[in-house]
Each structure stands twice: as C-alpha cells, then as structure tokens.
Design goal:
The protein is of the alpha+beta class. It has a single domain (about 5-45, about 65-245), classed as 3-Layer(aba) Sandwich (Protein Transport Mog1p, Chain A). About 20% of the residues lie in helices and about 30% in strands. It is built from 4 helices and 10 strands; from the N terminus they run H-E-E-E-E-E-H-H-E-E-E-E-H-E. Strands 3-4-5-9-8-7-6 form a 7-stranded antiparallel β-sheet. The protein has a 3-stranded antiparallel β-sheet with strand order 1-2-10, with no helix packed on it. The longest helix has 20 residues, at about 10-30. The two termini are about 30 Å apart.
C-alpha cells in the first residue's frame, strides 16, 4: 500500500469504534441473539430500532472536560475508552489514538493520526481533508449529505454528515493541525437523533499546537523512496483531480 493510501488511517481508527458501537447496539436493543437461543448474532441495522410511537428523543448528556495526554481537550459524556496504535509507514510510523464514549445510544469519538511531516507537506491540506472524509464515507457504505469548510484556531477543517444504511447517521469534523489529522464524529440513529452533537463537535481544544505546515510538492527526483514512494503520481493519487499534481519528468 502506498503512503497516500494510509492517509485514511484516521478514519479507519474511528471505524473500529463504529463496529464496536454497532455490536453494543445489538446487545442493548435485544436483537443480538436469535430466538432459538443458539448464541448466533443477528444482523442489526438502523431500521431495527425505530423511534416507536413518536416518543421524544432523550435529553442530551452533560459533557465534562477531558484532557488527553496527546495535547488536546475534548468534552466527553463519560470516561472514554482509549485505543492507541503505532502503524509502520515507510521509514517511520504513524501514531494513532482514539477516545470514545457512549450516552443515550449515541457514540461520541475523537481520534488522531500523527503523520510524518514530509508526507503532510507534500499534499495540499484540502486533499488530505477530502481523503479523510471520503474514506469514512466509503468504509461505512455511506452517502455524503452535506459539507462545509471550517477552521479551528486558524487550522483548516471540514464539517460533514454521512448517512449510512449499516451504521446510521454520522456527523463528523476533520482538522489538519500541523502533521496531525483530527477526526471527531457522532454516530447515532437518525430516528432518535443526537440533540447535542454540535456541542461535542465544537468542544475540541488544542493545547500548544504546532505551526501549520507549508504545502510544497517536491520534484520527483527529490522524493524519499523509502517514505513517499510515488506519492505525487497522478495515476495513483486519490484526491479530486483539481488537487492532484502530476509527476514531473526529468529532462535528459
């Protein structure tokens, strides 16, 4: 897998949480075990937990400040579950961490992926944010409903909503802070909603963040083969055509 493909790691870190949330939902809504008592897991979809009788959605939880050792603060409805990984990438590694908590059958999650600075600087910020958005939508077989360019303390970001027939509704935000990609999401059943989703999504606080990286696409002859390989090869890059820079050919 080429390094650019690994830019989806932030989304994939969060997707593991989504899978866990779906499994938990199967247990709590009574559909996790077949009627024969043989322990087989039933397939659960969002249609299986409707808002019966038009009952009002439960009030949203209260968020308490949580300070992560990776240098950010976030509002959480409960003590979060934490998962960390070190993933090899060329000559270096990508450090990932995710924090998630559930309240009223809604999953609140923030994940980070720290990429090599050289890799991040080789791409426009918009391309990186788009790849994180598209990767999340693809993995949950979802459809992008809306999106908006946003910022956090001057750092570029993207706010968007994905509707998935297998996972539910996802409101998400991505931010590129130096070489770190933040992914915040709220996963919920659209029949019941998530009335305080925006409260969570706007609660991210950066602590001593690094300066934004200047995007510079190097000449093909200066790329570090062990780290970037063919990162700027237009034939293999996945962002929008308007943000892809084709490889320059050396003149003989």
């Amino acid at each position: 897998m080429r390094p650019l493909s690994r830019l989806l790691l932030a989304s994939l870190t969060t997707l593991a949480l989504i899978a866990g949330a779906c499994a938990s939902q199967q247990k709590t809504d009574g559909t996790g075990t077949s009627g024969g008592g043989d322990g087989r897991q039933a397939v659960s979809t969002i249609e299986e937990v409707p808002n019966e009788g038009g009952a009002a959605a439960p009030a949203g939880p209260e968020f308490k400040p949580y300070d992560a050792p990776e240098g950010f603060g976030i509002g959480m409805p409960a003590e979060p579950q934490i998962a960390r990984k070190q993933i090899p990438l060329g000559a270096g590694t990508v450090a990932t961490a995710s924090y998630s908590a559930r309240a009223n059958e809604v999953l609140y999650s923030v994940s980070i992926a720290d990429y090599p600075e050289k890799l991040v600087a080789s791409r426009p910020p918009e391309a990186l944010l788009n790849e994180g958005r598209d990767g999340l939508a693809k993995e949950v077989q979802g459809t992008l409903k809306d999106e908006q360019d946003i910022t956090l303390d001057g750092y570029p970001g993207k706010s968007y909503t994905v509707s998935s027939p297998v996972a539910g509704e996802i409101k998400a935000r991505n931010f590129l802070v130096g070489p770190r990609l933040y992914t915040l999401l709220v996963l919920f059943n659209p029949n019941t909603g998530a009335p305080v989703a925006d409260t969570f999504l706007t609660s991210l606080k950066l602590v001593n963040p690094p300066p934004a990286l200047t995007s510079t696409v190097p000449d093909a002859g200066t790329l570090d083969a062990g780290t970037l390989e063919t990162a700027v090869d237009a034939g293999t890059a996945t962002p929008d055509a308007g943000t892809t820079t084709p490889r320059r050919r050396k003149t003989k």
